[in-house]
Amino acid sequence: MRVLIGCEESGVMCSEFRKAGHEAYSCDLQPTRGNPDWHYRGDVKDVMKKNHWDLMILHPDCTRLAVSGNRWYGRGMPKHEERLWAIDWTLDLWERAKSCADRVALENPVSVIFKFLPNVFYTQPWEHGHGETKKTGFALHNLDPLTPTDIVEGREQKVWKMAPSPTRKRDRSVTYQGIAEAAAKQWGEL
């Protein structure tokens, strides 16, 4: 399959699809921490239209979209206009992706974007081998929800409790390995 992982600089999801034998690429405005031979550095909206993709998995920036940011981005808050812009940008991304790919998944934490998108399901890292919590949503186009692969004990909130640092935002957004493995196995076998 030809797979594009949009808005991913970590390379985690891309790498799992590569391991499964797919022609997968990541794309982000930032350089990748993964293999640069498999990474497009640029605007995902420009990259996606260069090819037809069998599968596209999108990870749009959650800063303005996450419900956890309501005290800054909620209605009546100082940055609410930024949230409205982010919603419009993400909905445009979704529509463009569906025109360039047979199957699409859009990932975000608990987010305001999901009230505008179809077929939303949530998964947790502890359902895929990590004893942690980070409720992660996916809106789906022509895909089934991921089924749990390795339910484990432990419900630690490592991401939520992450100490402030210059790389905190980036580090909090990395896809859990077990979720990436599940996506590559389950969505990669369609």
Produce the secondary structure layout.
Blueprint: E1 2-6, H1 12-19, E2 23-28, E3 39-41, H2 44-48, E4 53-58, H3 70-73, H4 80-100, E5 101-109, E6 120-123, E7 136-141, H5 168-172, H6 177-186
Parallel strand pairs: 1-2, 1-4, 2-3, 4-5
Antiparallel strand pairs: 5-7, 6-7
Detailed description of the structure:
There is one protein chain. By secondary structure, this protein is an alpha/beta fold. 28% of the residues lie in helices and 21% in strands. α1 packs across α6. The mean pLDDT is 94.
> What count of helical segments does DSSP give?
6
Strand order of the largest sheet: 3-2-1-4-5-7-6
Q: Could you tell me the strand content as a percent range? A: 15-25%
Specify the CATH architecture: 3-Layer(aba) Sandwich
Series of secondary-structure elements, N-terminal to C-terminal = EHEEHEHHEEEHH
Mean residue pLDDT: 94
What fold name goes in the CATH topology slot?
A: Rossmann fold
Major sheet description: 7 strands, mixed
Distance between the termini: 9 Å
User: CATH class, please?
Assistant: Alpha Beta
